[in-house]
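Hi all, posting the design record for the shared folder.

TITLE: backbone redesign
STEP: 1 of 1
STRUCTURE INPUT:
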């Protein structure tokens, strides 16, 4: 009997006891049975969980949706880097093309791409996990193809991990060309159409190549507007933004002005791709 008392009850047993406790009455239903020590301990645990839920609902939940700026611990993909790299290279060489040819990573860029892959797998790397990726370089260096491969990689891995009920920090994102975003506004002629790009993990492809748009007689820098809105969510919730571009960070001011330049500097890990033009 003493040995049985030493064995701590499971949470399920405590829940059952709690339910019985709620339904039990003494003295004609006026006085409740005094709680046992186990019930008191269980009540403390529930209270602690509820207190934790307050943080999750306000900050942690928003961080889990948007990113990790508020110190959220990143849970990496439960696969090895070697296996992840095999899948990434397969995607790069078999599912994507540059002028009909598979993209071959040049030696000067291989280590940079390795760091990118570690970043999106949630593994330790030299990149800041609390910032997005700004991948830039001259025309034809494979920037868009690499981000497309990473997008497919994240979607593929995360769908399998979710199906297997595995824990991980999401890194998947959508990729949208900057000019296409402006064209959407031109077709709809309603400013609200760009609000869909204010939230969620997003990679703006070819950032800086877009033109401003005249809406109701006023010039509107559509992508700059999106960046400012996303910066607010980056500040509050850690929402991540990625981008590919031919524009050097030193040219941000000339393209978007000082206000947006300062936000871009804070939001991104800057990576430059070198090598030859893959389109020739």
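Okay, here is what came back for every position:
SEQUENCE:
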């Amino acid at each position: 009997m003493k040995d049985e008392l030493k064995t701590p009850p499971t949470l399920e047993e405590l829940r059952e006891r709690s339910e019985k406790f709620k339904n039990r009455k003494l003295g004609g239903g006026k006085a409740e049975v005094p709680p046992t020590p186990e019930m008191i301990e269980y009540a403390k645990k529930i209270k602690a969980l509820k207190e934790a839920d307050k943080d999750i609902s306000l900050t942690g939940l928003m961080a889990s949706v948007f990113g990790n700026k508020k110190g959220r611990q990143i849970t990496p993909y439960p696969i090895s880097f070697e296996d992840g790299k095999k899948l990434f290279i397969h995607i790069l060489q078999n599912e994507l093309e540059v002028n009909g040819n598979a993209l071959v990573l040049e030696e000067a860029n291989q280590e940079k791409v390795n760091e990118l892959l570690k970043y999106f797998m949630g593994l330790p790397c030299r990149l800041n996990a609390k910032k997005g990726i700004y991948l830039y370089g001259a025309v034809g260096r494979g920037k868009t193809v690499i981000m497309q491969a990473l997008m497919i990689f994240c979607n593929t891995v995360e769908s399998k991990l979710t199906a297997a009920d595995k824990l991980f920090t999401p890194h998947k994102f959508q990729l949208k060309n900057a000019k296409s975003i402006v064209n959407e506004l031109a077709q709809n002629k309603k400013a609200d159409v760009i609000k869909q790009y204010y939230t969620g993990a997003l990679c703006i492809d070819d950032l800086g190549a877009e033109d401003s748009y005249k809406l109701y007689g006023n010039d509107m820098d559509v992508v700059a507007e999106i960046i400012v809105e996303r910066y607010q969510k980056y500040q509050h919730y850690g929402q991540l933004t990625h981008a590919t571009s031919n524009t050097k960070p030193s040219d941000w001011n000339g393209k978007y002005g000082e206000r947006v330049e300062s936000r871009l500097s804070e939001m991104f890990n800057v990576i430059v791709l070198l090598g030859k033009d893959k389109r020739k």
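COMMENT: DSSP finds ten helices and seven strands in the chain.
Let me know if anyone wants the other runs.
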